[in-house]
Design brief:
CATH topology of one domain: Arc Repressor Mutant, subunit A
Strand content: 5-15%
Order of helices and strands: HHHEHHEEHH
Largest sheet: 3 strands, antiparallel
Strand order of the largest sheet: 1-3-2
Radius of gyration: 22 Å
CATH architecture of one domain: Orthogonal Bundle
Number of helices: 7
Structural class: mainly alpha
Shape: globular
Distance between the termini: 45 Å
């Protein structure tokens, strides 16, 4: 089933109405569109992240650590969607640059942003906010919120725009033939 377009397609968009252009079919695949959106976002962020010698994931990790000082690396990985090994590697690179401090706490590694890390975030904040706005510029404010809500729902993460339904104990369906 093909989704209905929200506007008229150009006359040359497909050979006939019954036979859509294969490229249009490809652009109805969520995975392809998400990958393209990631490309657009990465390309927009690249000049700034290069200028500050910081990868996008390093920024996300540093920003998360600044929001949750003392978070342990395992929880940090869960928050940003990285496996334990990758989280450790990213944290090690940030520590080498003196942007974070790692402290052992029993069997855990707790991480905090250093003064240098916080200063870098302060510098980057307005620039990255502007780029975020540029990336979603074609969308109305309502569409931006809808996009964030749908992506959050798809990923199952709570955000300002989406709260997953709580997963409580599910009751077994009542057997209508059971004696009451």
């Amino acid at each position: 089933m093909q989704p209905e377009p929200d506007h008229e397609l150009p006359a040359d968009a497909g050979s006939t109405r019954d036979e859509p252009d294969p490229l249009l079919v490809m652009y109805s695949m969520p995975g392809h569109l998400i990958r393209r959106a990631k490309q657009k976002t990465t390309l927009a962020f690249a000049p700034i992240t290069r200028r500050f010698n910081l990868t996008p994931i390093q920024y996300v990790v540093l920003k998360t650590i600044s929001i949750r000082p003392g978070v342990d690396q395992a929880e940090l990985g869960d928050i940003v969607g990285l496996d334990t090994s990758t989280t450790g590697q990213v944290a090690a690179r940030l520590e080498q640059r003196s942007l974070i401090v790692r402290r052992p706490d029993g069997r855990r590694q707790r991480v905090e942003a250093s003064a240098e890390g916080l200063a870098l975030l302060e510098q980057l904040g307005p620039m990255l906010e502007e780029i975020q706005d540029e990336v979603v510029q074609p969308l109305t404010a309502k569409e931006r919120q809808q996009l964030l809500r749908l992506l959050s729902k798809m990923l199952g993460v709570a955000t300002l725009y989406y709260r997953p339904k709580p997963r409580g104990r599910r009751r077994a369906p009542r057997d209508p033939d059971a004696a009451g």
